[in-house]
Amino acid sequence: MTEFDYTAPVSDLLTLGDCRDMRVWPNYLARGIGPEHIPDLILMVEDDELNGAGSDSLEVWAPAHAWRALGQLRAEAAVEPLTRLLYRIDEFHDDWVGEEVPDVFGMIGLSAIPALTDYLMEPLHGLWARTAAAHGLAEIGKRHPEARDDCIAALTKVLEGFADHDPTLNGFVISYLVDLKGIEAAPVMERAFAADLVDISILGDWEDAQIELGLLAGRQTPRPQYIWVRDAPGSSSQQPSPSTTGQQLGQQRQAERRRKVKRKVKRKRQKKTRKKQRKRK
């Protein structure tokens, strides 16, 4: 039993199980879920008992099914609850939130922009939570052309504070601006790169960014080694001497999470490059 009593059809989500077997999201609306079920779906998303259920249980996947359904419903009421969920990425190493919730924001659309912008601007939030908020803005801009300018403006506003950010965050914000073809943000990007405060293993260096934006035809200097080596103040790349095994484990998990996100971004960009090459042929 869970803290809340769920009734059909929302209760059916408790038994759907592993979302990894459903990369193509089911049509939850075809299962009878409608706008009237939004309050229960929000309760399910935030249900601590479900989120903390055993990893081999069916119930642990119910919150993910619920946020997918909220996305399909374009539930504006879910924006704040979903934003509150982002802390789980850093606190509980919940990569599933980081992978899917930005897509849900993209499905919900314009109404999520203010909340995501405020969240992204708050330095007290975790690195990966803020990265997910930036990703959410990018998804909104891609899915809703009428929101593109607002999303670019929000991401640019964040990047203007690059001196106070982790270089990894700067790198992801720039990559999302490039995805949106945010040429208007190029001057701010250039300053961030010039200050050596961008993790170039995410998108590449300033020349790579210009090429992606269509501002440069090709590289003018030798390609750099795309590994972040600078220990910038406040950078998560710094390796303080841990005093406990728990701290070491946390650092290892954070490093692996960073590698996973970067690999995913790299695969997307390689796929995009191959499509461009096929079109040229």
Task: Characterize the structure shown.
This protein has 281 residues and is an all-alpha fold. It folds into two domains: 1-73, no CATH class; 89-236. It is 54% helix and 0% strand. It contains 13 helices and no strands. The radius of gyration is 20 Å and the shape is elongated.
What is the number of E strands?
A: 0
* Total of domains: 2
Q: Give me the secondary-structure category.
A: mainly alpha
Biggest pleated-sheet summary: none
Query: Per DSSP, what share of the residues sits in E-state strands of 2 or more residues?
Result: under 5%
Taken from the alpha-carbon principal axes, the silhouette is elongated
H-E string: HHHHHHHHHHHHH
From the N-terminal CA to the C-terminal CA, the straight-line distance is: 58 Å
Main attributes?
single chain; 13 helices; 281 residues
SSE order and pairing:
Layout: H1 38-45, H2 48-51, H3 62-72, H4 79-85, H5 87-91, H6 95-108, H7 113-121, H8 127-143, H9 148-159, H10 167-179, H11 186-194, H12 206-213, H13 245-280
Helix pairs in contact: 1-3, 3-6, 6-8, 7-8, 7-9, 8-9, 8-10, 9-10
In short:
The protein has helices spanning 38-45, 48-51, 62-72, 79-85, 87-91, 95-108, 113-121, 127-143, 148-159, 167-179, 186-194, 206-213, 245-280. With 281 residues, the protein is mainly alpha-helical.
